Amino acid sequence: MATSAACVRISSFHYNNNNFSKLCFFRTLDNSSSMLERLLCSSSLHHFLSHKTKLSSLPRNYLYPFRRPLAVISHRPIHPYKVVAMAERTPASTSHSRNKHTNRLAAEHSPYLLQHAHNPVDWFAWGEEAFAEARKRDVPIFLSIGYSTCHWCHVMEVESFEDEGVAKLLNDWFVSIKVDREERPDVDKVYMTYVQALYGGGGWPLSVFLSPDLKPLMGGTYFPPEDKYGRPGFKTILRKVKDAWDKKRDMLAQSGAFAIEQLSEALSASASSNKLPDELPQNALRLCAEQLSKSYDSRFGGFGSAPKFPRPVEIQMMLYHSKKLEDTGKSGEASEGQKMVLFTLQCMAKGGIHDHVGGGFHRYSVDERWHVPHFEKMLYDQGQLANVYLDAFSLTKDVFYSYICRDILDYLRRDMIGPGGEIFSAEDADSAETEGATRKKEGAFYVWTSKEVEDILGEHAILFKEHYYLKPTGNCDLSRMSDPHNEFKGKNVLIELNDSSASASKLGMPLEKYLNILGECRRKLFDVRSKRPRPHLDDKVIVSWNGLVISSFARASKILKSEAESAMFNFPVVGSDRKEYMEVAESAASFIRRHLYDEQTHRLQHSFRNGPSKAPGFLDDYAFLISGLLDLYEFGSGTKWLVWAIELQNTQDELFLDREGGGYFNTTGEDPSVLLRVKEDHDGAEPSGNSVSVINLVRLASIVAGSKSDYYRQNAEHSLYLRQD
C-alpha cells in the first residue's frame, strides 16, 4: 500500500527577516493603489516563506456570500492545499462576439485555449512570439491561467474577455497570454506560488501581470469587470497597472525580480544527509495521523469542515498507519483509525458527491454532509478514489467497497475512454438545461425534479424517492451551506440517508429485490439523462493522470478476485469480468507509448490532443506513469512494463534528480521562460511527484538486485531526508 512521502518527511522553511524588508522598500504607490501595495509589501510573503503561520484564503466577506467564487488555495496541517469554491451563479454569455472575432488561439489544440479563440482580446499562447511582442512594444504582459472545466474561468471570459471595452484596454496596453494550467503546470506553478506567497491564497482563473522578461509585477485570481464587494474591478486593475508601469516601472521590476529570487531560494530544498534515521519515518507517520485525526468529522465523515474534498492521499495514509499499528500489536489504535477512514468512504459513497446514476465522483461537496457537490469530474480524482476503495476492500473484504471501485472504473470505461485506449481528463460542472439554450447552469445534467422522477419511474418512484431523499420542493436543505441562494430550488441531488437493509425490511421485501429495483430505476434515469445536453468533455490526454488510472485498473483486475462468487451488482456497475480492467490499463499505457514517448530519447511529452502537446513531460508524468507500469507488471501483465518503467526511471533521474541535494525537481530546467525550478514537498489534490517517486524507487529496489537495487534505495532515502536549510 502506498503512503505519501509527506508523511515520512517534515520540512520547514527558514527565512531572513532582513531580506523581507527589501520588499517594503519599494512601497511608493499612493493609497489608491492598495492592491499593488499589498502585493509589494504584504507580510504574507514572509509567512509563506517561513511556514510559521497558516496561509488564509480571501477575505471572509468576499468568500462567504457566494456558493462558489473561485478555486482558492490555502494551507492547513498535512494537506497544504485546499480549494475553496462556493460561488454565486453568473449567467452564461449572450454575447455575439464569438461570431465577430478570431485570434491566434484558434490554431491551438488545448480545449481551454480554444474556448477563448473568438474573444476580442488579442490573445497569444505562451511562447517566444508573445514575449518578443512585449519587448518590442515595451508593455507589460497580462497572463491568464485556467482550465477548460473551471467555472469561474468561464465567468471571467463572459464578463471581461468577451467585452469589447475590456478587450480594447488589454490590446492597447498589454500583451495578453492564455495558458492552460493542465497543459503547462510548470508555468502555472511559478505564478501561482507568487500569488499564494503575497496574498496567502490563490486559485483559478489566475490573473498575473508580468514584465516583458516574465518577472511578476502583481496578481490575483478572478476579478469582476467593475468594482464590487470591496474589491477593485478588472478595468480598475488594468488602469492601475498601466499607470504604475508608466510612472514606477523600475520599482515594479525590482520587486518582481526580488520576489522570484526569494521564492527560488526558499523552494530549493536539499537533504543534509544521505541516510534516513531509523525512527524518523514512523514518528512522522504517527504525527501526521495524529494531526489529521484531530480534524475528523465523526458525524458526517471526512477530515476538516466544509467544503469537503475526498483527499485520497490522506485516506491512504490513515489506512497505512492503521496497518502499521496492527502489525505492531496495537489493534485498538489501529481499529480507531480504520473506522475513521471506512466511515468517511461510506459517507462519500452515499452522498451527492457520488454520481449515483452514472458512476464516478464529483470534485468536492460544498457542505459538510457530502451532499451538494461542485459537479465537475476530474480524472485524477477517479483514479485515486478507485484505489482507495480497493484498499478498503482489501482490508475488509466488504463488497460495498469493491462495488464503489467498480462504479468508478465502469464510469471511466463508458464515458472517458477514447478510440485508441486513451483516457480523457475531465467533465465540466456546467451544461445547458435544454438543447440550444445559451445559458449553462451548474449541475443541470445531474439534478432532478420530483415530478421528473415520478414520470420516469412510475410504480417504483415512491421507493426511489424515499431512498434518495427526493422532495417536490427540492432536497438541498440538509445544510445551510448546501444551497444558500436557492439555486437548486425545486431540484434534487441524490443522497442516501437510509440503510438499504432497513428500508427493504420495512417494505417486507428481500434485500436483493430492493437493490435490483434501485438499480433498474437508476438505469431508467440514466437513459433519460443521456438525452440531456452533456457537460463539456475535456478530451485532452494527460500522462500523469492516465498513470493514476492505469494503476487503479491494473490493481482492480487482481484485487477484485477476492469478491465472493455470489456478489451481485446493479447499475451503474456493469459487473464486468475483472480481466477487462487489465485490458483497459494496457490499452492506456500502449497509447502513451505510441503517441507520447520517444523511443530514441526515452522522453515523454506531457499531453495529447490532436497530436502531442509542445510541453515536455514533467516529473509527475514520469513518476505517476512509472507507478502505473509497476502495477501492470506486479498484477500480471508482463515484464515489458517493468522494462519500460526502468527506462523511464533512468530518464527521470537524468532529467529531474538533484544528485547533490536529493529529491526531484518538477521540471527539467531546460525552458528559460519558466523562472522557478521547484521540488514539490507536499501532496495536494494529486500526490506530489517526489512522494510517488520515493515509493517507485523502493518498489524497484525490491524487484532488481545488486548495485541497481542499492542505487534506487539510496535515492529514496536521500529524497526522504529533504529539508529546507
Automatic annotation (TrEMBL):
CDD domains tied to this protein: SSP411 (cd02955)
Region forming the signal peptide: none
A biological process term (GO) from this entry: carbohydrate metabolic process
Domain Spermatogenesis-associated protein 20-like TRX: 102-263
Classification via InterPro entries: 6-hairpin_glycosidase_sf, 6hp_glycosidase-like_sf, Ssp411, Ssp411-like_TRX, Thioredoxin-like_sf
Domain of life: Eukaryota
A Pfam family that the UniProt record links to this protein: Thioredox_DsbH
Record protein name field: Spermatogenesis-associated protein 20-like TRX domain-containing protein
